[in-house]
Amino acid sequence: MTLDKAKVGERVSVTRITGNGPLKRRIMDMGITRGTEIFVRKYAPFGDPMELNLRGYELSLRKADAAMIEIS
Amino acid sequence: MNIKIALAGNPNSGKTTLFNSLTGSAQYVGNWPGVTVEKKDGRLKGHRDVTVQDLPGIYSLSPYTQEEVVARGYLVNDRPDVILNIVDSTNIERNLYLTTQLIELGIPVVICLNMMDIIKKNGDRIDIEALGKKLGCLVLEISALKGDGCMAAAEAAIDTVKKNTNGNLEMPHVFNGSVEHALAHIEESIADKVEPGLIRWYAIKVFERDQKVIESLKLDQPLMDHLNEHIRDCEKEMDDEAESIITDQRYKYITKVVEQAVRKKPLKDGLSLSDRIDRLVTSKYLALPIFAGIMFLVYYISVTSLGTITTDFINDILFGKWIQPGAASLLAAAGASKPVISLAVDGILGGIAAPLSFIPQMAILFLLLSFLEDCGYMARVAFIMDRAFRRLGLSGKSFIPLLISSGCGVPGIMATRTIENEKNRRMTMITTTMIPCGAKLPVIALIGGVIMGGAWWMAPAMYFMGIAAVVISCLILKKFKMFEMDDTPFVMELPNYHLPLAKSLGIHVWDRVKGFLKKAGTVIFVCCAVMWMLANFGFGAGGFGLVPTNESLLAVIGGFIAPLFAPLGFGNYQSVAASISGFAAKEGIVSTMGVLAGAGGMKTFFAGSAAAMAFLVFNLLDSPCLAAVSTLAREMNSRKWTIFALAYQNIFAYMVALLVYQFGGLLSGTLDFGAGTVAAIAVLVLMIYLIGRKDRKESEIGGLGYELDN
Questions:
Q1: What is the ipTM of this complex?
Q2: What does the DSSP 8-state code read for residue A30?
Q3: Cβ–Cβ below 8 Å for A62 and B90
Q4: Which residues of B180-208 are buried (b: 16+ CB within 10 A; e: fewer)?
Q5: Are B243 and A48 within 8 A, CB to CB?
Q6: Closest Cα to residue B147, out of B47, B4, B19, B50?
Q7: pTM of the model
Q8: Chain A residue closest to B280 (CA)?
Q9: What does the pLDDT look like over B327-371, one tens digit per residue?
Q10: Which residue in chain B has the smallest CA separation from A48?
Q11: With an 8 Å Cβ cutoff, are A62 and B388 in contact?
Q12: pLDDT in tens, A10-34
């Protein structure tokens, strides 16, 4: 399953990040790596982007980009 | 000895506050050469030979964003003596990720743990000594907001340089054996190409296949192939890509370090104060009303109430009753001739009164908006609005400049600095002045009221038109090669809310007002004088001299250019002259039209309401006033781009006005089908094509193609 399908309030763990290049690098730079625990805080009022809590801070990520993150 | 301290850290880590307290007002603000990234440096307070270079807030030293490239360029090439790394202790893991990269540069790093007061208040603990040992650096506590420990940190940094003590501390072992093996091979191969302190950093970059580094090192193909073999061995062993391996291992290392040095108390019901506030501010149903409410308050205070009071005071009393009459009598007493008095009092003083009168309004607006930005609210606004901007190739961050431009384009253009992606930044700068600013309201009122008979819907309609113009322009521009961009994702931190320091706010506001004042004192001053002369001098009955405006040079120039605007319905010198005077300040359009209106009134300038609309549309969409244009030029930091921006704005305005006049005239029966209509249809077809054509990226690469930036 990918992160963009996760529901609000779910706590998930990252298994893999697909893709390559600047997009993947930026996602990893922000702390989303294999094994990272992510808490899905909410979705924005218009449905996109998502707000995630990880490593002690709040991150805003578009669903299309979150689709690159496989979780369990 | 001259010591250079570099200030590095994540965005929102308090770096700017630290920089301000270290340098006070001894700062220089500009742009890094060739890019739109702001450059700030200054002298350390109380030290004659120590400079502090503020680097852009960055999360990493990757080659993919302008900020990162600029920062690493400085660190690698300019070789500062020491790095002050400011770390937000409340999200220490992500902050230390950058630290591990800074350490590899062979420059001593002094870590400043900021926001320790919040850590202590929560009951968390950080073992500073353990942290320092594990990272091989000196670690100090500071509170940038309170000003605690800031100078001490700078002094410690200077000490580190003078005593050369960093060599004693051990470098952390971040990577595993497999990676180190590959790195050893790479280090060996590049040892003769780089200075010893940087071998490590370069080796890691080569391992990551960092294109910029590989190019700068000029590694030939056979060597790269050889090194690639080692890298691929490691990739196979770790079952991952080189770049990800490095990033992954850094975070694994940091997680270990943090586990040992940091003790966190779990939050009550898992929510911090910021989370609690956000439950309302970004909630599904309350977010927009709250936003609308806040914006209404901002504009009410800065424009409608306080703002108007101060503007009117400056215009009517300060200038109208004191300065202008005062100057007039002074000059008269000194024996100045009438034209000179008029030039000084009406032309120059009268001309600069308008922009100057805006300053209090702008200052208040800047203050309120800076407050919203510094406290963290604007990030929430970008978060909420992002979805609407995706289609335009922009992100939610572009919303704020557009919003600010409805007050004044000058701070609006400056607000684009928060947009990371340079092409997005440029695109937003070009389109942001299409939103009607405060100075354009009198023009809307004039056309709507006097000429079109008081249509109440004019103002809202023009705002919608502005928004439509922005949308259309973005759709058109993003398909041009120059705006093509790699898809840097909209990945944005929502920082904790905090009350900004009054001092920081003050510096923010003064920085912007100062820029505007400088413009007013120089360019606008000259422009007003020139405008006045053009409008009052000409070849009249008695040769060259003072003439009524309708015989002036301005009228002549206007008349010369006027035929160009015939297809738009206002091919007469009065309309053109008015538009030209809008160049200095948009409200000038109204005053010039007033001056030039003959017996028949201003209605005679336009062949019908379609022409009046076309005139209005043209003046709303064309390039903004001089103050905004010079701000644009400064922020673009590139002559090519500035010229492109101005050309686009004016050509676009012309085309839209053409459509308005030709089709409007046809529909309202004042125009017949003719050459003009054909031209308008051609323009319409062109625009539809430009909007609708396939994205170059989509057609070439197919689907989502992520390319390396270059």
A1: 0.95
A2: T
A3: no
A4: eebbebbbebbeeebeeebbbbbbbbbbb
A5: no
A6: B19
A7: 0.82
A8: A45
A9: 888 888 887 777 777 777 777 777 677 667 777 877 888 788 888
A10: B387
A11: no
A12: 999 999 999 878 889 999 999 999 9
